[in-house]
Structures are given as C-alpha cells and as structure tokens.
Amino acid sequence: MDKKLNIGIVCYPTFGGSGVIATELGIGLAGQGHQIHFITYDRPARLTGMVHNVRYHEVKPTAYPLFDYSPYDSALVSKMVDTAKYEKLDLFHVHYAIPHATAGYLAHQILKADGIDVPVITTLHGTDITLVGNDPSFFNVVEFGINHSAGVTTVSKFLKQKTIETFDVKNHIEVIHNFVPPHICASTPAREEERKEFAPKGEKILVHISNFRPLKRVEDVLAVFEEVRRKIPAKLLLIGDGPDRDKLENYCRQKKLCKDISFLGKMADIGQILCISDLMLLTSVTESFGLVLLEAMACGTPVITTDVGGIPEVNIHGKTGFMAPVGDIKSMSKYALSLLENKPLLEVFKKQALEQANAFTLDKILPQYEAFYHSILLKKQQHFGELSTR
Ligand code: GMT
User: Fold this and answer.
1) Would the CB of 5 count as within 6 Å of ligand 1?
2) Kind of pairing, strands 91-95 and 120-124?
3) In the chain, which residues fall in CATH 3.40.50.2000?
4) Which of 103, 176, 305, 357 makes an SS bond possible with 282, Cβ 3.0 to 4.6 Å?
5) pLDDT tens for residues 205-259?
6) Separation of 124 CA from ligand 1 center, angstroms?
C-alpha cells in the first residue's frame, strides 16, 4: 500500500469551483488517511465542522500604511514554509495558478535553502489560463509557474489544450477531471414540500448557479427563462452573487418578474435546490469544465448550456441535456421547452444525467490524484538518487 502523505493544500476558500474541488479533494484524501493542511486566507466555504485528519492554517496578510495592497503572496509563502517545516509536508497541491503556482515556487526555493524539498503540484482550473492568466499583467508569472511546478494538472482536456496554445509549456500536463462533491444531493425526503416553497402550483423549476461575472452571461439565463415562461408556468432560482447581480435584479424588478425569479444569494448547500430543480441553465462565454453542471446532474437535473470550452466533456448533447452556441437564446429556449413540456423525455434525461454524474464520482477521481502525487514523489526520489551517486 502506498504511504499516507502530509499534504499542504492552497486554494481560494470561496464558493468558486476551484475552491470547492480543492476542499472536497482534501476532505476525501483525509478520509483515505492522508493528513491534510489547508493553507488559505479564510476557512474554506465547504469545510464546515471538524474533519478528521484536517487542519486549517490561516494566511494573514499584514496591513501597513506603506502598502496600498497588503502583500497576500508574501504572507502565503511564509505560511507555506512554516507549515511545511513544522508539519513535515510531503508535497504542496496548489489550486489556481495565480498567484499560487509562483507562491509555491518561492516556498519551494526557501525550503530548499534549508535542505527541505517539498514538490509543488499545480492544478489549473480555468480563468487562470483563459481570461486572467492571459492578461499581460499575469502572463509571464503564470507561464513560469506552470513550467516550474513539479507537476501540473488541468480539470479538462480542453484546458490542457488551451494552456499549451496560450503559453510556452515545457512541462507535462496531466488531465484529471473534476468530480462530483460527495453528499451533494442528500436532502431528497422533503423534496415535494421544498418544491412547493418556490413552485406552489407545480410550476417547473429552472436553476442557475454562478459568480454573476460577465463571462457567465446571466442576462441570457433570464432571456431563456422569459421565453420558457411565455409557454409554460415556470420559476427561476438564481444562486450565487457577483458583479452583475444588482443590474439583473433591477431588470427583474422593472419588468415585474420578481414573483417568478428568486435571487437566493450564496449558498453552502446547493444540493437542496438542485434536488428540486427540473433544469439547469449555464450560458457562459467560456467554461473550463462547469462543475455546477456535474453537481446538477448528480441531483438528477439535466442541463442546457453553451457549447464552449470543456462543457462538451461534461454535458452530452441529446443525453444529459442540450448545448447551443453562446448567445443563441432561441435554440436554448427551444431545447429547454422540449424537455419541460415532455415529462417522459425529461425523466429519461434525468436518469441519463445521473448516469453521467456517476462517471465522475470522487472514488474514481481521487485515486488519479493519489497516483499523480506518488509519481511526482518517485521522480523526486530518483532525482535525489542520481545526485547522490554522482
Ligand atoms: O470563474 C469561475 O467560474 C470560477 C472558477 C474558479 O476558479 O472557481 O471556476 C473555474 O474552475 C472550476 C473548477 O475547476 C470549473 O468548473 C469552472 O468551469 C472554471 N471556470 C471557468 O473556466 C470560467
């Protein structure tokens, strides 16, 4: 049996997909007997309560009048070095390249000066490559971080290809797909009662979850919903928060849509809503994977999406839902109605969505990460062996 590891996980502790995956992976690894140390600026949103084998080390950037911006990177690196030394970490697994890959590199160099070698594995999640990473203010740092990580993974084949196209990549990239966070849909018994809270007259329930950033095109979600509502009684539930929310909420108020559209804000337990939903809408301009799609499918909810990025690796057109080009409201509405107006077909799609989610369970994905960790540690040992025989 492979040795149990001491792993330092660095991520954004928010409700964003990269933070969710990092946290659920850490909890899953802890369940396998590994010791997990989350090194984050806040307690990860999905890390609630006490979890066996898990510790949380808070990164606290210090404010000082000289700093317009408190240097998060320096505070993070210091905490990584401190944790590695005193918790005897075997490796760091950092999620989202900016600034975590280069923070990892610096922590690695500082530890190396003390004769300690803790390899850094970087998982690229999406916008760190496609949107933010591509920006001139980050480009060189992201490229360096990718090329100087001991191991690099991406959450989809699309993201691997995009990374290679965008940067001068000299490192191997391993694709390890995202997984369904366990227990996502644990709240089934009260389903009918909960449905009535939002759809008292048996209306169909559509759902959208995002960070309400422009790339999600939430205005298209509303447009599709308005088309659907013209034909059948329906409600739309919007989960999450972000820059576009106020604008969209005002739009709904002005158009007197509020009785049918509910803005629920950020939620830790999205499964409660997904379990009572009939259809998810995701209208993004780009999406490296679309974790919320998998979460919806795990609750038996088919999805209508755009056909971009890594989405086709998750949503099988005509089986788990439908895809259409970005901004194609007409096709998305038509597809949505084709399912919502046909109960037997909707049931078939629900079943197929569940089956697809079963291909991405934690017990299938976690061993891929464990194998990757061990392959990196083996390489380190071999390198050390070669050096000592020289
Ligand atoms: O921009 C976001 O959607 C948030 C971002 C994150 O880092 O949390 O999500 C990215 O990572 C998720 C987890 O791997 C993926 O499921 C999302 O598709 C990806 N977002 C984009 O590519 C836009």
Assistant:
1) no
2) parallel
3) 6-179+361-388, 192-359
4) 305
5) 999 999 999 999 999 999 999 999 999 999 999 999 999 999 999 999 999 998 9
6) 9
